[in-house]
C-alpha cells in the first residue's frame, strides 16, 4: 500500500472527566503534551501521508505545540460532538484530495498507539470492502448496574470487544455514513457506529491493550508507564 493513507485526529474535546486545568490532550506526559505523542506516532508511520487534526474553534493551546514545519499536519474546526469533529476533518480532507483514501481516525487522547497495530490494520483491511477498527477482547465479567450501583444483570461477554481507535474506512464511505447519522440526529460515539447505521459490518482487528484512551486522572500515570515500556521503538 503506497503512502495513500491519511489520519484524522479528533482533538476538540474539553476532557471534562479529567477535571484538569486544560483539555486532556494538552496535559503534560513524560515532558510533552499528550497530543504531541499521538501525532509523533502517526506522522512517523511510513504509510501515513498526512494528518488532519480537528481542534476547538477557540483552542488556545494548539499554537504552543510548535510542531515541525515539515510535518504534513492540517487543521480543521472541531464540533460539539466527537462525530462532528471527525465529519469536519473529513470534509476538509476531501478538499485536499481527489482520491478516496483509507482514513485512520484516531483519538488525540490515545498516545500509546503502536506501529505494529497500524501495520496489522493495514494488512488485514487493505482489500476489505468496508474497513474496520482496532479493539480488545473483553477479558473480565461484565455487569449492568442501576443508578444505585446495584447489579441488574451479568452481560454475556461472548464475542464482546472494547472498541478502540484507529478506525479505518474509506473517506467517501465514512463521510456519507456520518452525514446519514447527522441527518437522522443519531448520536454516535465512534466511526464504526456510523458505518453500522449505514448498513455495513466493519471488521474488528485485535490491538494491544496498552492503546488506552486517557480519560480519567489515573490514566495519565498508566500512559506514562506504557510509553516508557514501549521505549522509542514505536512498538
Ligand atoms: N466534541 C469533541 C469531543 C471529543 N473529541 C475528541 O475525541 C477524542 C475522544 O473523546 P473523549 O475521550 O470523550 O474526549 P472528551 O470529550 O474531551 O472527554 P470528556 O468526555 O471527558 O469531556 C478526544 O481526543 C477528544 O479530544 C473531539 O474531537 N470533539
Ligand atoms: C472512539 C472511542 O475511542 C472508541 O472507544 C470512544 O468511544 C471515544 O470516547 P468517547 O468518550 O466515547 O467520546
TrEMBL record:
<comment type="pathway">
    <text>Isoprenoid biosynthesis; isopentenyl diphosphate biosynthesis via DXP pathway; isopentenyl diphosphate from 1-deoxy-D-xylulose 5-phosphate: step 2/6.</text>
</comment>
<feature type="site" description="Positions MEP for the nucleophilic attack">
    <location>
        <position position="157"/>
    </location>
</feature>
<dbReference type="InterPro" id="IPR050088">
    <property type="entry name" value="IspD/TarI_cytidylyltransf_bact"/>
</dbReference>
<dbReference type="Pfam" id="PF01128">
    <property type="entry name" value="IspD"/>
</dbReference>
<dbReference type="GO" id="GO:0019288">
    <property type="term" value="P:isopentenyl diphosphate biosynthetic process, methylerythritol 4-phosphate pathway"/>
</dbReference>
<protein>
    <recommendedName>
        <fullName>2-C-methyl-D-erythritol 4-phosphate cytidylyltransferase</fullName>
        <ecNumber>2.7.7.60</ecNumber>
    </recommendedName>
</protein>
<dbReference type="InterPro" id="IPR001228">
    <property type="entry name" value="IspD"/>
</dbReference>
<dbReference type="InterPro" id="IPR018294">
    <property type="entry name" value="ISPD_synthase_CS"/>
</dbReference>
<keyword id="KW-0414">Isoprene biosynthesis</keyword>
<keyword id="KW-0548">Nucleotidyltransferase</keyword>
<dbReference type="GO" id="GO:0050518">
    <property type="term" value="F:2-C-methyl-D-erythritol 4-phosphate cytidylyltransferase activity"/>
</dbReference>
<dbReference type="InterPro" id="IPR034683">
    <property type="entry name" value="IspD/TarI"/>
</dbReference>
<dbReference type="InterPro" id="IPR029044">
    <property type="entry name" value="Nucleotide-diphossugar_trans"/>
</dbReference>
<comment type="similarity">
    <text>Belongs to the IspD/TarI cytidylyltransferase family. IspD subfamily.</text>
</comment>
<feature type="site" description="Transition state stabilizer">
    <location>
        <position position="24"/>
    </location>
</feature>
<feature type="site" description="Transition state stabilizer">
    <location>
        <position position="17"/>
    </location>
</feature>
<keyword id="KW-0808">Transferase</keyword>
<comment type="function">
    <text>Catalyzes the formation of 4-diphosphocytidyl-2-C-methyl-D-erythritol from CTP and 2-C-methyl-D-erythritol 4-phosphate (MEP).</text>
</comment>
<feature type="site" description="Positions MEP for the nucleophilic attack">
    <location>
        <position position="213"/>
    </location>
</feature>
Amino acid at each position: 500500500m503506497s503512502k495513500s493513507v491519511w489520519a484524522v485526529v479528533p482533538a476538540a474535546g474539553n476532557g471534562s472527566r479529567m477535571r484538569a486545568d486544560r483539555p486532556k490532550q494538552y496535559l503534560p506526559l513524560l515532558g510533552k503534551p499528550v497530543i504531541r505523542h499521538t501525532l509523533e506516532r502517526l506522522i512517523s508511520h511510513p504509510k501515513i501521508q498526512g494528518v488532519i487534526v480537528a481542534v476547538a474553534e477557540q483552542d488556545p493551546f494548539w499554537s504552543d505545540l510548535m510542531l515541525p514545519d515539515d510535518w504534513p499536519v492540517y487543521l480543521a474546526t472541531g464540533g460539539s460532538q466527537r462525530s462532528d469533529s471527525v465529519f469536519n476533518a473529513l470534509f476538509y480532507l476531501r478538499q485536499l484530495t481527489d482520491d478516496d483514501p483509507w482514513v485512520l481516525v484516531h483519538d488525540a487522547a490515545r498516545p500509546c498507539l503502536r506501529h505494529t497495530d497500524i501495520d496489522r490494520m493495514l494488512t488485514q483491511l487493505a482489500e476489505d470492502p468496508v474497513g474496520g477498527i482496532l479493539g480488545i477482547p473483553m477479558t473480565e465479567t461484565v455487569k449492568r448496574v442501576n443508578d444505585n450501583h446495584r447489579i441488574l444483570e451479568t452481560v454475556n461477554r461472548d464475542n464482546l470487544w472494547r472498541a478502540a481507535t484507529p478506525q479505518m474506512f474509506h473517506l467517501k464511505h465514512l463521510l456519507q455514513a456520518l452525514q446519514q447519522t447527522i441527518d437522522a440526529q443519531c448520536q454516535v460515539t465512534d466511526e464504526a457506529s456510523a458505518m453500522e447505521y449505514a448498513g455495513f459490518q466493519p471488521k474488528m482487528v485485535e490491538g494491544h491493550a496498552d492503546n488506552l484512551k486517557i480519560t480519567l486522572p489515573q490514566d495519565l500515570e498508566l500512559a506514562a508507564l506504557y510509553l516508557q515500556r514501549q521505549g522509542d521503538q514505536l512498538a
